Amino acid sequence: MRGIFVPVRSKRTFEDVSSQIKKLILEGVLRPGDKLPPEGALSGQFNVGRQTVREALRILELSGFISVQKGFGGGSIVRNNILKRTSGLLLDALHMEKISIKEFTAARLLIEKGILDEAIDNVTGRDIRDLQGNLEKSKELIARGKLATDVNIEFHSLLARASKNTIYVLFERTINAMHLDLRRQRSRNFFIDKAAVRAHEQILDALIEKDRERAIGLLEKHISAVSKHYKRSETNFLAQGGC
Question: What is the C-alpha to C-alpha distance for residues 74 and 175, in angstroms, rounded to an integer?
Fold first, then answer.
């Protein structure tokens, strides 16, 4: 990789170093799985100290562009964890804003209706099998007397993936993280899990049949029912810094 990096001279050199590496990743010169040169080599190519290189790599790791592995054979590996990191930051921002259940439900309805609308046009056989597998997993857990909260929420992630829209996948991850926190802390019970499985089955049937109006109507009914349950427990579910 010698020759692809340019020496930096600004005061905040670690930002210049991280920006150069990030640019090469975004342009495809460096791809997921590629290993960056050792700190010493990067230090020489950028004409900066090792501490500057470490700070730059730390920024890239926090942003989801690389992972840093310690020990023999370790190093900095190019990754694609950006969506995960971004959705986490967005979730933190929403916690700070103390979002109400009314706001959460309105946003969730808007986003998930868009997801389902695109999924009807773009869903593949593999997507349908994944959704069916999710439902079977939920039913199995409930039959064994276990909660299926996490698996039920994953159903919505699979729908987002079926939309083939990366923006929807990003926002759905944030919505699901908020939803999961809320369920874990205040509303984990079999009634909600069983109702969710029934609703998901109906939504999937409508999706398979390409019945857009019915699918979206079922989704609205499902989300509204969940919202009513949450409203009975609390109206400002992020007020304590968590869902």
Answer: 35
Residue at a domain's end among 31, 57, 80:
80
Closest CA to 160 of 95, 97, 103, 83: 83
CB 72 within 8 A of CB 183: no
pLDDT under 50 in the chain at which residues?
A: 235-243
Torsion of CA 47, 53, 55, 61, to 10 degrees: 140
Shared domain check, 107 and 219: yes
Give alpha helix (H) positions in 97-148: 101-122, 125-143
Q: Name the domain boundary from 80, 107, 128.
A: 80
| Cβ atoms of residues 44 and 38 within 8 Å | no
Model-level pTM? 0.70
Give dist(CA 114, CA 171) in Å, integer. Answer: 11
Give the whole-angstrom CA distance, residue 243 versus residue 192.
Answer: 17
242 and 95 Cβ atoms separated by less than 8 Å:
yes
Q: For 210, phi and psi rounded to 5 degrees?
A: 60, 30
Exposed / middle / buried, residue 116 (Cβ in 10 Å: 0-12, 13-18, 19+): buried
Residue 3's pLDDT is 66
- In 3-state terms the chain splits into helix, strand, coil percentages (rounded to 5) of 70, 5, 25
Q: Do the Cβ atoms of 43 and 50 come closer than 8 Å?
A: yes
Q: Provide φ and ψ at 239, rounded to 5°.
A: -65, -25
Q: What is the CATH number of the domain that holds 174?
A: 1.20.120.530
